Amino acid sequence: MKTKIKMCKQKKYNKIRFFFPYLYPFIILILSIFQSDRIHQSGKKDALYKENLLLRGCTIRNTEEAVGIVIYAGHETKAMLNNNGPRYKRSKLERQMNVDVFWCVIILLVMCLFAALGHGLWMFQYGDKRPVFDVLSPEGTNLSPIMSAIYLFLTMIIVFQVLIPISLFVSIEIVKICQVYFIHQDADLYDEETDSHLQCRALNITEDLGQMQYIFSDKTGTLTENKMVFRRCTVAGVEYSHDANAKRIAMYQEMDSEEEECMSHGGTLPRRDSVGSHQSARVLRSHSTKSHRRTGSRAEAKRASILSKHTAFSSPMEKDITPDPQLLDKVNDCSSQLDFMRLHSQPMSQLPSDLSDVFDFFIALTICNTVVVSSPNQPRQKVSSSLNRSSNKGGSSMQSCPSAESTLTKLNEEQSSSVMEHAFSPAPPSYDGKAFCTPEEGELRYEAESPDEAALVYAARAYKCSLVGRLPDQVTVELPHLGKLNFELLHTLGFDSTRKRMSVVVRHPLTDQITVYTKGADSVIMELIRPPITGKQKKKILCRTQNYLNLYAADGLRTLCIAKKVRSHKDEYAHWLQHHLQAETAIQRREELLFESALRLETNLQLLGATGIEDRLQDGVPETIASLRKAGLQIWVLTGDKQETAVNIAYACKLLDPEEELLTLNADSQEACKLLLEESLHYIQIYPSSPLSSHAASDSVHGLGLVIDGRTLAYALDASLEDTFLTVARSCRSVLCCRSTPLQKSMVVKLVRNKLKVMTLAIGDGANDVSMIQVADVGVGISGQEGMQAVMASDFALPRFRYLQKLLLVHGHWCYSRLANMILYFFYKNAMFVALIFWYQFYCGFSGSAMIDQWYLIFFNLMFSSFPQLISGTLDKDVSAETLQQLPQLYTSGQNSEEYKPYMFWMNMIDAFYQSLVCFFIPYFAYTDSDVDLFTWGTPITTIALLTILLHLGIETKTWVRSWFSPAGSFTAAAHVTWKDHLFSSFDLF
Amino acid sequence: MGKEKSKSGPLARRPDNSAFKQQRLPAWTPMLTASTVLPSFYLLALICMLLGVWLLLTVQNTQEMKVDYTEAGSCNLCFEMRKNVSNAGQKCTCMIMFSIEKAFKGDVFIYYGLRNFHQNLRRYMDSRDDGQMLGRKSNLKSPSSYCKPFDVDEKGVPIAPCGAVANSMFNDSFILTYYTINGPTVVPLLRKGLTWYTDKNVKYRNPKMDNLTLPEVFEGTTRPPYWQKPVYQLDPFDPNNNGFINDDLLVWMREAAFPNFKKLYGFLYRANKPFTKGLPAGNYSVAISYNFPVQYFKGRKEVVLTTVSWFGGQNHFLPIAYLVTSGLILLTAVVLTVVWWKFGKDGKNMAD
C-alpha cells in the first residue's frame, strides 16, 4: 500500500510563521490535504472548515500533494473587499493648519473685496468723464464702476492667489519625507539583534509624534520580550526553585549591560569569536557559571538569533536552562528505575508515585505541545520517506491528525494482540536517519506555535528528556537511560482561548495505556482535577501547588498546570473517539460539538505539577516609561493577561509605584460596576492630593493606579458609565486593563481619543493589538516575534519598546517643531509678499497692477523662498537630542501645541503685514516724485522683501551654519534671476 | 539605497554613522548676551547715523524747482480751452514766469511732471503691443488685441503705435527763456539721450526700412486718435529720432510707478555761456505749447528743473529715515544698557 506521510500539524506552524500579509490576502484557498485515491475509493466525506483556510502568503510544507478549492479570488478576496483605501490619518498640526488656510482664504477675499470697493469708488470719482488713462473695454464701451469693481474682484483673486499657500502642501510632503528619512537613518533606533531599524510606514504623521498625550501599550511582546524563560516548577507539590537558573538569567542581564558598554567602546562590529559558540550552546551547561559568563553573553545571543532567524523562539537564554539538581536527580533516578523495570519486565505501577509524577510531568512537557523539531543541518523537516504506517489526512488541531478511522480499526486490532514491542522498540529502523538528527549530529531546533511551548520543551530537554522527533502520529522522546521512546499520538486537542488548555492522547510505550496529557491555565485545570478521594496526601499536593501557583503569579511568572489522565480501558477511549469523529464531520454546530467532545475527554484529571515561565521585560522599559511619564504622557497598559501577572509586570516596569494606591475594579454586573466607579470617584474627590489634571498627577508622589479587568471594562465602557470611568481613569496616574479583548482595547482607545480630545498612541506587537493600533492617532507596531500583523497595521514599526523614547521625545519633538515653524513661516512669507502688492493698489487706483514682475511672482514660491525653509524645516534643531532626552519635560511644548497656537497665525499675519509695510513704504518714499518706472521701482522692493523674508527665516532658525547657506543660495538665485530679468526685459519678446 | 544593498552580513541594515544622517552636523546656535547685543546696537546706530549724515549732505547739494503751469498765468485760457474736446485740434500756447534764486550748478535736468495721472493702471499698462514697437512688420499691420480699442481706427486702419499708452502720450512742449540784463536768451536744451540704452536699441525699433523712407514704412497705418501728427513725424528736426525710437515716445512708454510722476524732457546744453556752469540765478520764463488735457482727472502739470547727484534727485526721505532709525536704535541701546547695568550686570540671568 502506497501512502504518503504528511505532516499535517506542520501546516499550522507554517500558517503562523509565514503569515506576514495576514491582513492582505489576495487569494484565499481552502486546502485540504488528504489522500486523494482514498476518498475516491471509499467515497468518504471530509469536512472542510475554517482551519483549512489558507490565506495568501502561506507556505505548505511536508506534502507532495495538495488538493484545494479556490473559494475567494479576484474581487471577492478579503483584501479587495476590505480595500476601501487605507485610513488617511491627518495629523493634528495639519488639521490646525487647514483652519488657518481657511483663514487665509478669508483674508484673501477681504483684501479682494477691499480692492474691488476701492476701485469702484476710484472709478466713481471721475464721474462720466473718463480720464485718458482709463481704457475702455475692448468693445469700446464704458464699464460702470460697479461692473469694473466686480471684474476687479476676480482679477484680484488671481493677483493675490500667492496668499493661499498651495506650495505649502507640497513643501510639507517634501519635509516629511526628509524627516522620515532621518528617522530611518537614526542609528540609535537600530536593533542589532534583529538587524532591523525603525520603519515609518506612514509618511504623513511624523509631527504627531511630538504631540502625544496618551500611550496605550500592550504588555506581552511590547513591554516584555515575549521570550519565555523557564523559571521554576512544582511537581507533585514539591517546589523546585531553580536557583542556578535564576542566577544564570541574572548573569545574562549583567552581561547585557557589560556588553553594551563594551559595544560602545569597541566600535560597532560584534565579536567574531562568538560565532562558533552557537554550536556549543546545545551542550547543557554545568553549574559552573564561569562558562556562562564566557559564552552566554548577549553577543552570542544576538549572533545566534541572527543565524537562526528562521527558527522561532530560540535564543540561548531560552534554550539553556540550568536544571535544578534535586529535580535532575529525581529524573535520573526515575528513568534508571524505569529502565531497570523494563529490563526485568516489572509492571510500571511499582514506581513510587512521586517519581512517576516527575516522569509524567516531563513527558507531558515534552509531548503535550505542537512543537516541530528540526536540525540546523536540515532546518526544514521534509519527511518524504514512505512508512508502512497508518495514513493520515489533514485537519484542524481539534481533529485527530492520524486518520481517526484507521486509529479506530487499529485499536480494535490491538485489543486482541498487543504490539507492545512495536511501540517499545527504540526508533523503528524504517525511520530515515536524517529526519531525526540525534543531538550528536547537531543541535535540534524546536519550532513552536507559542514561545511558552518552546520554553517548556527546552526545559524538559535540560532534564535530558528531549523531544527528538514528531510525526503526525508519533512523538519520539529521548530519555537518559531508556533511550528513545515512541509515543503513539492518537489525538491532539489543540489549544483554544475558550478552553484555555490543550491535550494530547497518546499510547504510553511503557505501560501501553492510553494517556491524556493536558496543559493549560491554572484556573481551568484546577477545576478539572479529580477531587482526591483517597488520602490527605493528594489534597495536600493540590493545596500546595495552588499556593505555589499564587506565588508564581505574584512573581510575575506565567503559570501553566500540567495534568494527566490514564485511560486504562480502550473501550472507553474508542467510545469517545467515535463521538468525537461524529463531531468532527458534523456539518452543523460543529464547533459546539467539538467543544463538548473535548470537555468529555478532559475531566477527572490528575495533577502533575505546574510551571512558572518568565516573560522578561525588554531592556530599558522602566527607564523609558519613567521618562515618557516625565514628558507628561499618560501610559495605559491594556493586556489580555490575567490581573496578577499584569499587575506584577506593571510593578516591574515601574508603571505602578509601590507607594501608589491601587484602585482595583472587579465587578460582576453593570450595577456593581456603577457602584464601584462612583465609589472610586468619590474616593478620588476626597483624596487629599486628588490630582484631577494630569499635571498635578506627575507632581504628587502618591498617585493612584487603576486596575480594571476585562469584564468590568465591558461594563464600564457602556455608554452610561463611560464618562464616570473616564473621570476615574483620568485622575489616576496609571491605568491597567487586564483580560481585555482586542475589541475592548480599541474601544478604550477610541473612548479616550474622542471624549478627551487628546492625541493617542497605541503600541503593540500582536494581531490582538491591530484594532487598537488602527484606532489610535498614531499606531506603533513592535516588529517582534508575533508575526507582522501589528506592523502591517501600524504607522511606525519599532524593533524594541525603548526606542519609543527617542522616537517621541527627540524625533517627535523635532518633527513637530520643525513643521510647525515651517508652516507659520510659510503663512508669513506669502502674506508678506502679497501685502506688498496690496499696498500698491492704493497708488494704482486699485486696478490690480503689480509692481513685481510676473516672473518674480511665479518664481517666488518656486525658487526664491522655497529651499531655505525646506532645509530649515528638515534640519533645524531647536534643542539638541541629548537635552531632549535628558529633560523629557520639554516634550510638553508639543503636547500643548506651543509651537503653533491659533494666535500665532495671526501674530505672523500681523508681522507679515507690518514687514511688508516697511518694505513697501521705504522704497516708496525713496522714489516718490521721481521719474522711476514701475518695474525699476518694483525690483528693489522685491529684493528688499526677499532679503527680509530670508532674514526672518534666519532669525526663526535656531541652529545656524547648516542652514545659512540656503538663504544665501536663495539670494544668489534671486540675484541671478534679477540679472537675467534685465536681460529678459531687454530682449523682452524674443 | 544601492549602497545599502551592496552590504551584506548580519548588520547589513545598520544606518551609516555619519554626521549628516545622524543629524549631528556642526551647528551654531546664536546666544544673545549683553556683551554681544549692546555693542552691535551701538555699532548699528553709528552706521545708520553716518549713512544718514552722508546722504543728507549729498541731498542738500541738489536743487529742485517745480513750476506748476496747469492753470497758472496765461495757461488758464489754454486750460479752459482744452476742456472742450472739439478744440483739440487748435493750438494754444501760454507762458509762465518764474525766478531762480540760487544758481543750479552742474547738469540740469528738465522734466515734465504730471499729477494724478495713473500710468500704472492695469488695463492701461497692458494696452500696448511690444511686438509692434519692436518693429515686427506683422504686428505693425495687425496690432495685438491688447491694444483694443486703440488697435484700429473706425475705418479699420491699424494704428501705429497702437494702444492706450501711446495714444495718451504727453504732447506739451516747452521753450525755456532766461532773462539777462541783455535781454532774453533761450535756454538751450538737449532733447536726445533721454532714454535707456536698451529701450532705444533693443526693446524699441522701427520696422525694417529696406531702402524705404520712414513714412513709406508706416504706410497703411494711421496715427493714434489723440495724436496730432503721425509717429514718423514726431521730431521735425532729426529724422533719426522718429518712428518707434523717438525719445519722447520711449520716455512715455516707460510707465511710471506712481500717479504723481515726472518724466525727462531734456538736459541743459552747457556749451555756451551763460549756461556753462548750469542755470544761473535770475528770471526765467517757460513758453508752453499747451496740448495735454488734464482737467478730466483733476490732474496737474508742471515743469521740473533739477540737478542730480549720484544719489539721484532731491529726496530727503532716505537720509532722514536713516537718522531717525539711528536715533531709535541708539535710544534702545541706551535703555538696554541701563537695564543691563541695573538688573543684569551680575550676569546671572544673562548667563542662563
UniProtKB/TrEMBL annotation, chain A:
GO terms for cellular component: endoplasmic reticulum membrane; plasma membrane. It is found in: Membrane. Its cofactor is Mg(2+). It is a multi-pass membrane protein. Residues 284-296 have a biased composition (Basic residues). Keywords: ATP-binding, Magnesium, Membrane, Metal-binding, Nucleotide-binding, Translocase, Transmembrane, Transmembrane helix. NCBIfam families: ATPase-Plipid, ATPase_P-type. Residues 376-419 have a biased composition (Polar residues). This is Phospholipid-transporting ATPase. Its EC number is 7.6.2.1. Pfam families: Cation_ATPase, PhoLip_ATPase_C. InterPro entries: ATPase_P-typ_cyto_dom_N, ATPase_P-typ_P_site, ATPase_P-typ_TM_dom_sf, HAD-like_sf, HAD_sf, P-type_ATPase_IV, P_typ_ATPase, P_typ_ATPase_c. The chain crosses the membrane at residues 16-34, 101-126, 146-170, 905-928, 934-955. One of its GO terms (biological process) is phospholipid translocation. Residues 263-304, 376-432 are annotated as: Disordered. The active site is at 218 (4-aspartylphosphate intermediate).
Automatic annotation (TrEMBL), chain B:
The chain crosses the membrane at residues 37-57, 320-341. InterPro entries: CDC50/LEM3_fam. Keywords: Membrane, Transmembrane, Transmembrane helix. GO terms for cellular component: endoplasmic reticulum; Golgi apparatus; plasma membrane. One of its GO terms (biological process) is phospholipid translocation. The keyword Transferase does not apply. Its main location: membrane. It is found in: Membrane. Belongs to the CDC50/LEM3 family. This is Cell cycle control protein. It comes from Oryzias sinensis (Chinese medaka).
